[in-house]
Design brief:
CATH topology: Leucine Aminopeptidase, subunit E, domain 1
CATH superfamily: Leucine Aminopeptidase, subunit E, domain 1
Number of domains: 1
Order of helices and strands: EEHHEEHEHEH
Largest sheet: 6 strands, mixed
Structural class: alpha/beta
Strand content: 15-25%
Helix content: 25-40%
Distance between the termini: 29 Å
Strand order of the largest sheet: 1-6-5-2-4-3
Number of strands: 6
Bound molecules: adenosine-5'-diphosphate
Shape: globular
Number of helices: 5
Length: about 170
């Protein structure tokens, strides 16, 4: 599987599946989640509501992932995953890595060959961006998969530069 970086808005990605940095409620939020629902239209939220009612009465647990249609987005599916809120007191990195691996497993089960991920937990949930990139790449490289391409979509140039530094193994900020 190839991992590449991209910069910009994940909702425009022409891939089989895009991953949503959702929250447990599955009922929408800010950041990536807000953009996906705004641009994807109401079909995504309707499916999220149905999933919530049928399977996740108490919300989707942190580290897990579930797929819906992508509505009006160019992708075919949205895979919703719930990242952990960053904590300096507790190591929640296994949960963050689980977001990447469970989303990848869901994508493979759907038959997706290309998947775009945002930098999960690095916005509203405050995970330091350099470590968020390191966790993403570690998790994505951990297991073999039928997914052929993963694109890590960084929202702005500054985050892109951080990601490039981390991938080059030269983290100095
Ligand atoms: P979380 O709650 O998991 O932290 P956020 O959506 O707040 O999720 O942010 C995750 C990352 O995605 C942040 O780095 C943020 O800057 C970035 N981001 C926000 N909107 C978009 C978008 N439309 N496309 C790609 N990345 C985005």
């Amino acid at each position: 599987m190839r991992i590449e970086l991209a910069t910009g808005d994940i909702t425009t990605e022409q891939v089989d599946a895009i991953v949503n940095a959702a929250n447990s409620s599955l009922l929408g939020g800010g950041g990536v989640d807000g953009a996906i629902h705004r641009k994807g239209g109401p079909a995504i939220l309707e499916e999220c509501r149905a999933l919530r009612a049928a399977h996740y009465g108490r919300g989707l647990p942190v580290g897990q992932a579930v797929a819906t249609t992508a509505g009006r987005l160019p992708a075919r599916w949205v895979i919703h995953t719930v990242g952990p809120v960053f904590s300096a007191a507790e190591d929640r990195a296994p949960l963050l890595r689980s977001c990447y691996t469970t989303s990848l497993a869901v994508a493979a089960r759907l038959g997706a060959k290309s998947v775009a991920y945002p930098l999960i937990s690095s916005g509203i949930y405050r995970w330091p961006k350099d470590d968020a990139v390191a966790q993403a790449v570690t998790a994505l490289q951990a297991e073999p998969t039928t997914v052929e391409l993963v694109r890590l979509v960084l929202f702005d140039e500054q985050t892109r530069e951080i990601a490039e530094r981390v991938l080059a193994g030269r983290v100095d900020s």
